[in-house]
Amino acid sequence: MFLTYLCCFTLCTITLFYMIDIYLVLFSFLLSCAITLYAVPSLIKLAYQKRLFDDPALEERKIHKYRTPNLGGIAVLTSFAFTACFCISGNILPYANYVFASGLLIFLVGLKDDLAALNPHKKFFAQSITALIVVYFADIRLTSFYGVFGIYEMHPVVSYPFSTLLIVFIINAFNLIDGINGLLSSVSLIVSLTFGYIFFQMQEYGLALLAMSMAGSVLGFLRYNAGKARIFMGDAGAYSIGFIIAVLAIQFIELNKAQDIAVAPPFVDSVPAVAIAILIIPIFDTLRVIVIRLVQGKSPFMADRNHLHHRLLDTGMSHTQATIALSSFNVLMIGTALSFQHIGTIELLILIALIALLMNTMLWLYDVRQVIVRAQPLIVEEDHEKIYQLRDHAREVAEEALQQYEEKQHQN
């Protein structure tokens, strides 16, 4: 009897603890969302008072037409940091101090870039220092290539710099997709919710709370950034989001590393490919524009209008339609990767690459079609001009022949 009561008590305790975790995760999501919703209107008012705008007249490639505040990152990071610090205890995320210290540093770098443009070399240096803090002190780094390029375990000499550069790459990749209204917030929301759900199922509650706090903050910001944007995220917000998601992505890969399948099988198979699928929009867009710029003989750091969102706008889509299209593609890739995760890392990477290239090919075919459509009136005009020339030449020949005939008749 005692054993029965003990089992029932243990079961109830475990169930209650599990439910508390669910409520805490939901609470972190709702709290960060509420704080952002409350803070953004005050930031918009402050920006207008202090004349802190993103002015489209200063750069030709700017899409928006009116001066818009770009301090949204302040609200996003504030709500995220407060919620995460309030909900996450040290025992479930022991390296949280390094994550928040680095997050604050990268936020200040982005804020400085928003207020007074920074030199690209200074930004890269600051981003590298930020990434190195979590890589070295928190030991958040990749230790395996999972057989990609035939490489498995990485030596620390390779792991530290590679992980640092990877974090810097993801930070800038998220900054680059912040080109149209709602895109960065929508993609960040999808990515954060995906990581939050997976980490919760893995019982990694500290990382789940970190991801859900970020999801709530960007959802609250999306209320003011979607459609006709009243405020932009700015580099401060984009850098902070990219940094936190880079940390989540690396931990997602490392925690699913199959060290001993018999003891602790990974929650997700082909984890590097699944991680790439989750981050497909910023990763593919960044790699795509870099390749295009190098092929055209330009610097990969030179800004242009070759991003995916620019290409969709050129097809006639609005900001909202382009955001929905790219967000839907992101969801499609996540679903595809999770559905085919058992086929193997290399095979899944090939599948993801083929789908991404298919989308790029569709955009290329649209460009070809537009060139053909523009060329058709020119071709018709040239044909008409040739017809007129032949007609005039024929008239001249006929008049000359008629004149010669009349002269012969007159001589006779």
Automatic annotation (TrEMBL):
It is found in: Cell membrane. One of its GO terms (cellular component) is plasma membrane. Mg(2+) binds at residues 175, 235. One of its GO terms (molecular function) is metal ion binding. GO terms for biological process: cell wall macromolecule biosynthetic process; cell wall organization; lipopolysaccharide biosynthetic process. Its cofactor is Mg(2+). It is a multi-pass membrane protein. Its main location: membrane. CDD domains: GT_WecA_like (cd06853). The chain crosses the membrane at residues 29-48, 69-92, 98-117, 129-152, 158-176, 183-200, 206-224, 236-253, 273-295, 316-340, 346-366. Keywords: Cell membrane, Magnesium, Membrane, Metal-binding, Transferase, Transmembrane, Transmembrane helix. This is UDP-N-acetylmuramyl pentapeptide phosphotransferase/UDP-N-acetylglucosamine-1-phosphate transferase.
